[in-house]
Amino acid sequence: MYSLYGFGGFGRRRGWGKAKKSQKKKKEHWFERLTVDQNKQLCKAIKVRHVGNKKDLMDRLLENDQSSKYACEKYGINVDRLKAMCRERNLQVSGVKFDLVLRILHCDNSTTPEGSTLKRAATDVITTVDVATGTVVEKHVPKKRKKAKPSASKVYTRVDKKIESCKQKKYQSHWGSKSHSSEVYGLVADILSSDVINSEESYLSKDPRFAVSIAEAACTSLSENFHKMMRPGYDDYGSWGEIDSSLRTIAEAVKPVFSAGEKEKMAAWIEDLYNTIEPYGLDMNAPDLLETAEYLRGNEDAPKKSEETAAVAKEEVPVDDRKPAAAKEVPVDDRKPAAAAVAAASVPEKADVSNDNNSEVEKPVIVNENVANAGIM
Fold it and tell me: Of 291, 314, 337, at which residue does a domain stop?
């Protein structure tokens, strides 16, 4: 009975006998996250004693001015700042925070271990002459890394992954789901523009078949995975207009070079792309896709819908000689104005005396109220 109300009984009450979870102790500084060997490497880099336990090593690192500035994690030097410091010293920027700090300390103190070389970034030597002293000055400038040659398979996977990203949390909201399709179309438009038409290696003129393979991979990936998108009907950035014009530019560049089979193949996947987007009304943003396909198949006179629309807009509209509604002449009304009509209505009209019975009608007697009131008084 008493056990029902929690005053006793033989049963164990809920929550009794459970061990409390031990809370992890917060790290006071960054050196506590490192291993003993990593702390020793930092001590060697700043030329301090590197013998002892972890606490002794950390105390030496905190006392040194060169290493103590890296200890604070919340308000200290972050990874982006460390990478900028490495670029100032022409060092590589790859690796985690420990690698970057160790690389900077080795460079500042010239304490690179024997048998290993300091990882420096690839640089170009620029020679200049100092005007004041006349001495030759050599300056190391980081090399600009060339953009890797695109691959059709990687482009297909890149577009597919972007479509699959609709499962991410930022696209699960109402407005986020609308922006997903626009970003996918923007990616395809960027690939056609930067990797095909405006590439640094000029693939469209030097290797047109490779350029078309990149464009085909991007468009085919979009049409085959189109059903995975959440709201494919949104194109907030107008990317379909760029895709349309880019495909027309590519078709005009490769048509003199391609064989009949290659032109038919390109026209086929462009037509498939148009059939994919038509049910969602996106063909209005890309009106020339079918015309581009017909252009590749040999119809030289296939006009663009955009040009037809512009031509219709430029056609002369028949001039209407009629005056506008505001300029039309208003017929003159001989009737009295409203105020005069009301005044006339208050005075009865004279009766018509030209009737057959020659009946006399009594004229109304107008009484002056002021005179009447004076007589009464």
Answer: 314
Instruction: Chunk the chain into consecutive blocks of 10 residues (it has 377) and report each block's average pLDDT, rounded to whole numbers.
Output: 52 58 80 94 94 94 93 87 91 92 93 83 78 80 78 96 93 90 95 93 93 96 94 91 94 94 95 93 85 88 51 47 47 48 46 45 49 45
How far CA 70 is from CA of 33, 75, 112, 256, in Å, comes to: 12, 10, 19, 62
CA gap 155, 216 in Å, rounded:
9
Non-local (6+) Cβ contacts of 213 within 8 A are 152
Supply the pLDDT for residue 142. Answer: 73
| 8-state DSSP, 27 | P
- Residue 136: its pLDDT value, please? 82
The token duo for 369 is 């109220």
Contacts 24+ apart (CB under 8 A), 100-107: 101/42, 101/67, 101/70, 102/41, 102/42, 102/45, 105/42, 105/45, 105/46, 105/66, 105/67, 106/45
Selection from 184, 192, 266, 194 nearest residue 225 by Cα: 184
Q: 91 - beta bridge partners?
A: 120
Q: What is the pLDDT of residue 326?
A: 46
Quick one: 198 and 281 in the same domain?
yes
Domain match, 202 and 101 both: no
The DSSP letter of residue 304 is -
Task: Give the H or E element holding residue 209.
Answer: helix 208-224
SS3 helix, strand, coil % of the chain, rounded to 5?
50, 5, 45
pLDDT attached to residue 153: 95
| Beta partners for residue 126, in sequence order | 139
The H or E element spanning position 128 is strand 123-129
CB 288 within 8 A of CB 305: yes
Coil vs helix vs strand at 300: coil
pLDDT of residue 26: 82
The number of distinct structural domains making up the chain is 2
Output the pLDDT for position 126: 80
Residues 6 or more apart whose CB falls under 8 angstroms from that of 101 comprise: 42, 67, 70, 82
**231 with 281: CB under 8 angstroms?**
no
